[in-house]
């Protein structure tokens, strides 16, 4: 029997997710009982906060929108302050299966792993696959799913990503991955399944303009990080 590293926080950034957030929290609580669910409300204009609280989550409300990574980092700083040893990040739109969480927890409990990414590259559209291939080549990071929001972090990773050096990132993927690599933290990737998106659409991969902006921004970030420090090796499974 695997012993998970307690205490565990499930961090869910949410903005206007009134249609899905209650179901996401309920699924987590059905699957796992000994975890704290934390919803970071990114200045929603609907009843996301009310529904999340009614479902039994702790809600951190941001006074103005910080974007997905700003909300996640807020959650990581909360987890660090409250002395959680493990943090799971997942989306509020219902794509991630709650029963994938124990799989990530089992892997992150290993002393040889600091970060686990739940990988489902099959979900990638043509635009997403082009972006992924480009950044794998540019960064040398061989992960198959560079933008998955389902991740597990141990205490060392939480501490790093809660620090000021991780603050000025627009996206949670390449910038975060490169910070983790530069610090020598060990990343593993495990296959999961994802549900189709039931509400809204990706803010990055929904148009050529959005993808072009994302690729330019992230390419500059990758080049800056590569120039400023050596790359370390990444472990995938």
UniProtKB/TrEMBL annotation:
Database matches in Pfam families: Glycos_transf_2
Origin superkingdom: Bacteria
Keyword Iron-sulfur: no
Gene3D superfamilies the record matches: Spore Coat Polysaccharide Biosynthesis Protein SpsA, Chain A (3.90.550.10)
Cleavable signal peptide: none
GO MF term list: transferase activity
Keyword annotations from UniProtKB, A to Z: Transferase
InterPro entries: Glyco_trans_2-like, Glycosyltransferase_2, Nucleotide-diphossugar_trans
Annotated Glycosyltransferase 2-like domain residues: 10-133
Protein name, per record: Glycosyl transferase, family 2
The species this protein was found in: Thioploca ingrica
């Amino acid at each position: 029997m695997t012993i998970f590293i307690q205490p565990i926080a499930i961090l869910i950034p949410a903005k206007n997710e009134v249609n899905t957030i209650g179901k996401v929290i309920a699924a987590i609580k059905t699957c796992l009982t000994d975890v704290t669910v934390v919803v970071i409300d990114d200045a929603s204009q609907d009843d996301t906060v009310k529904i999340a609280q009614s479902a039994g989550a702790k809600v951190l409300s941001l006074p103005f929108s910080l974007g997905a990574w700003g909300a996640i980092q807020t959650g990581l700083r909360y987890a660090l302050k409250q002395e959680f040893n493990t943090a799971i990040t997942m989306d509020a739109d219902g794509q991630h299966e709650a029963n994938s969480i124990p799989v990530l927890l089992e892997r992150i409990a290993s002393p040889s792993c600091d970060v686990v990414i739940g990988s489902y590259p099959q979900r990638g559209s043509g635009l997403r696959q082009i972006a992924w291939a480009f950044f794998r080549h540019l960064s040398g990071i061989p992960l198959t799913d560079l933008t998955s929001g389902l991740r597990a972090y141990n205490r060392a990773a939480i501490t790093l990503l809660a620090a000021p050096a991780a603050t000025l990132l627009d996206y949670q993927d390449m910038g975060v991955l490169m910070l983790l690599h530069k610090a020598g933290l060990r990343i593993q990737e495990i296959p999961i399944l994802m549900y189709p998106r039931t509400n809204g659409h990706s803010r990055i991969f929904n148009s050529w303009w959005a993808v072009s902006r994302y690729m330019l921004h992230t390419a500059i970030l990758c080049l800056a990080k590569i120039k400023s420090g050596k790359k370390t090796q990444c472990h995938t499974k």
